[in-house]
Write a sequence for this structure.
């Protein structure tokens, strides 16, 4: 085993140890409201919901309905459903996990999604750098950036963007619009930011919208478009990319942080897949009384395009891909893998 492989293995084991501590805390809290019934089913004493551990989601009815209606079909995890049905089903998933969204990402990222988000924001360096000696802006300083955070209902990325712009670049004018199709997720972000000085200063607002139709946002009006752990749930990712291209100013940046379907190391990939499909739905059942939503979220990662394919989709939407050469491009420079490829950062720049 090489030093590089040994280091990767040690880092991977460290992450699993970190996640075990998170799980212990969550399971301890959940155990206060969950019990096992004599019929081998879980019963939530708070909401009185019960379900068996072996319960499976119905698949055939959705497929039959799609065929009967002659509607176009798409995937919802590993199911085939009508396109018109997917939006409502994805909405139901995120309404269900809205209050436990951070815990969900802890489980799905082995507890390090916070580090990924921090790195994602630092790599974008949001805000217009101003005079470092000036504690506040003056009339001759830049007007700040307009940032659109798509599928950002939790407020995680928006908060980091505003913190970075304010504390690192001394920019007190950069503004973030948090957009989400799900009102419950948007409500979580509104609740989180409502007590911050950013809300009081009018530097954040909220937009309930489908990323595939951002008609409420003017063309060529956005400096930075971000989407973190959301684009894999879109029905038409190509339409969302076209809308991102439309609303961005020339020179504006599209940036996406998303889980990837394959890890770079085959051994760790096998371990991670086993963890994802065996443990995460069970954790969702224990911690959130919602196995189906977590099962879908794992399956949605598996159905997301691999890095080269998604980078090509960004390019097809009209963006220039950082790290690629004009003409005979090498797609290997079109993204940044995080933690052996559990997640990846993709970027595109709208040509001037």
């Amino acid at each position: 085993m090489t030093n590089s492989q040994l280091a990767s293995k040690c880092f991977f084991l460290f992450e699993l140890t970190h996640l075990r501590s998170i799980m212990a805390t969550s399971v301890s809290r959940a155990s206060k409201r969950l019990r096992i019934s004599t019929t081998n089913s879980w019963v939530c004493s708070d909401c009185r919901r019960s379900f068996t551990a072996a319960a499976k989601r119905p698949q055939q009815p959705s497929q039959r309905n799609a065929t009967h209606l002659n509607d176009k079909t798409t995937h919802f995890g590993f199911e085939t459903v009508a396109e018109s049905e997917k939006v409502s089903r994805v909405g139901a998933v995120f309404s269900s996990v809205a209050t436990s969204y951070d815990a969900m990402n802890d489980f799905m990222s082995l507890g390090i999604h916070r580090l990924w988000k921090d790195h994602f924001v630092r790599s974008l360096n949001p805000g217009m750098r101003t005079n470092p000696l000036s504690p506040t802006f003056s009339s001759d300083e830049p007007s700040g950036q307009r940032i659109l955070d798509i599928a950002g209902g939790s407020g995680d990325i928006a908060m980091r963007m505003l913190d970075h712009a304010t504390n690192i670049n001394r920019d007190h004018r950069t503004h973030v619009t948090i957009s989400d199709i799900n009102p419950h997720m948007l409500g979580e972000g509104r609740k989180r930011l409502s007590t911050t000085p950013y809300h009081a200063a009018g530097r954040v607002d909220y937009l309930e919208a489908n990323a595939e139709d951002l008609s409420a946002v003017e063309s060529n009006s956005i400096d930075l478009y971000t989407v973190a752990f959301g684009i894999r749930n879109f029905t038409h990712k190509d339409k969302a990319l076209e809308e991102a291209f439309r609303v961005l100013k020339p020179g504006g940046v599209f940036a996406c942080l998303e889980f990837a379907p394959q890890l770079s190391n085959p051994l760790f990939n096998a371990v991670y897949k086993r963890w994802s499909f065996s443990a995460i739905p069970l954790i969702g059942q224990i911690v959130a009384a919602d196995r189906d939503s977590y099962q879908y979220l794992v399956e949605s990662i598996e159905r997301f395009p691999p890095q080269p394919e998604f980078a090509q989709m960004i390019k097809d939407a009209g963006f220039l891909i950082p790290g690629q050469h004009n003409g005979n491009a090498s797609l290997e420079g079109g993204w940044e893998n995080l933690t052996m490829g559990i997640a990846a950062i993709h970027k595109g720049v709208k040509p001037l």
Summary: The first helix runs from residue 3 to 31. The longest strand covers residues 248-259. The radius of gyration is 21 Å.
